[in-house]
Amino acid sequence: MRLLVLLLSLAMPIVAFFSQRGAFGPDNGAISGQYPTLVVAAGFAFAIWGVIFLLDVLYGIWQATGERRGDATLDRIAPLTAAGFALTAVWMPLFSMGHFGVCLVVIIAALVCLLRAAIVLTDDATRLPRQWLWAWTPVSLHAGWLSVAAFLDLAQTIVAYGWLPTTHMLPWSIALFVGLAALLLWANARMRGNVDYAGAAAWGLVAVYVKQSGWDLPGASTAAWIALLLAIVLIAQTIWLRMKWRGGVVADAAT
């Protein structure tokens, strides 16, 4: 299973390379342009995938080598990380091919797997030396970005299939922001102020603010301010939780 995690961590950037070069169809930017929503981020936000993929590969190497090969926590999360990485890789060609409904199921499943893995690592942070750097950080970043990306994907799927009105998107977009807020604040509290998880999510929310600020869709300005407010609240919650837990789980693990 550990070797599978490593192989799948390598598969994600390889699939992304071909996906961005049109091997499976239009790239993400082109598809997003076809289905504009009030819950879409500026293009720069997706550069975070490069960081996530790099750290995931380093995690894949780390967990498959040395004394970590016998660690019970890494054994426990190996199926979760393997599934999360596999689903992330599968999502990219499916999205390029326009299978939005399947993509939505896939990205939610990937989120569930990696968020669960991040929670397990948080709970076991003090038992596995330096896991906060080599395991907790990459898994948490991936889960944080997927938390936002899943709702971006949901909004695009709603528009693509016409499930809800596309001329007046603000009411249901607000509902999506409420759902996203509930997920982010719950998960961040559950992980006692996970700065990596919250940082990735805040990055996405700021990118939504930037995109919607210059968007001409009805309700875009309101959506922009909601996204920015949520980012601020999430950051404030993280600071408070880390103070409450005397530096948070990272400080505990480092000692």
Automatic annotation (TrEMBL):
Q: Which UniProt keywords apply?
A: Membrane, Transmembrane, Transmembrane helix
Upper lineage ranks? Bacteria, Pseudomonadati, Pseudomonadota, Gammaproteobacteria, Lysobacterales
UniProt organism field = Noviluteimonas caseinilytica
Transmembrane ranges, per UniProt, are 35-62, 74-92, 98-121, 133-163, 169-187, 194-210, 222-241
Task: Determine if Magnesium is one of this entry's keywords.
Answer: no
Q: What is this protein called?
A: Seryl-tRNA synthetase
